[in-house]
Amino acid sequence: xxxxxxxxxSILIFVLxxxxxxxxxxxxxxxxxxxxxxxxxxxxGPTSTSSTSPTSSQDIDxxxxxxxxxxxxxxxxxxxxxxxxxxxxxxxxxxxxxxxSADGSVELGGTYCxxxxxxxxxxxxxxxxxxxxxxxxxxxxSPIGVNPVGGRTLVNLDTILHTEAEPFTxxxxxxxxxxxxxxxxxxxxxxxGQGDGFTTSDPGQPYRExxxxxxxxxxxxxxxxxxxxxxxxxxxARWRVGDGPWRPVDxxxxxxSDPVPLEVVTARPQLxxxx
Length: 275
Description:
Largest sheet: 8 strands, mixed
Order of helices and strands: HEEEEEEEHEEEEEEEEEEE
Low-confidence stretches: 1-57, 71-79
CATH topology of the largest domain: Immunoglobulin-like
Number of domains: 2
Distance between the termini: 97 Å
Number of helices: 2
Shape: rod-shaped
Radius of gyration: 29 Å
Strand content: 35-45%
CATH superfamily of the largest domain: Immunoglobulins
């Protein structure tokens, strides 16, 4: 990696004085740089740049990034990185050198052929790393609501169940890149406490007089007893780097809510007066 950093500093001087560097070796136009790679930043400090660099008179990080051969060694979009890296020269590896400005703008400064030593490709944002980052984001618990209120319901009565779960976004730093997650609840799995359960895509809503019963998420208990009503919320997400395209996260996050005790009772007719 020291050889790569040294090479990147050398190419920085070359880029600032002469424009984009060129590599010996033909470049496949369809292979392109993989924007989901994340490499080491080399801070140059305040700098006056040429027309090939992103901006002028501000801090710029010069980031070496391997140019990937698309689709080799993996089926389709199996991951966002190099199946293999493009070669150049006698026995070298081909890199793009990206300039990342303090304001977040990115522009290609040139390419570089590393022929000395065996530099390792920059770390890449694999689906596994993206999923791990998603699972580290604190996801709110969904509180359980029940109607009728008071912790008691009747056998053969439509008991109304509901919760609160709202979509949200979160931006994290991962391998030197800003990764934004767009997170939303996808399904709600209710445990009735009597050995059965069901799943909905609707979080439900509290009882309101104006709404028909078809507007609610309900469950009808068939026998009396004390139960613990449970809920598991499944969250899904999509992600992107900077302003790049959205991609689905390959996995979900599930959160268990605190269970709610509920007494299921049987209504019996009782004569209270007789005239």
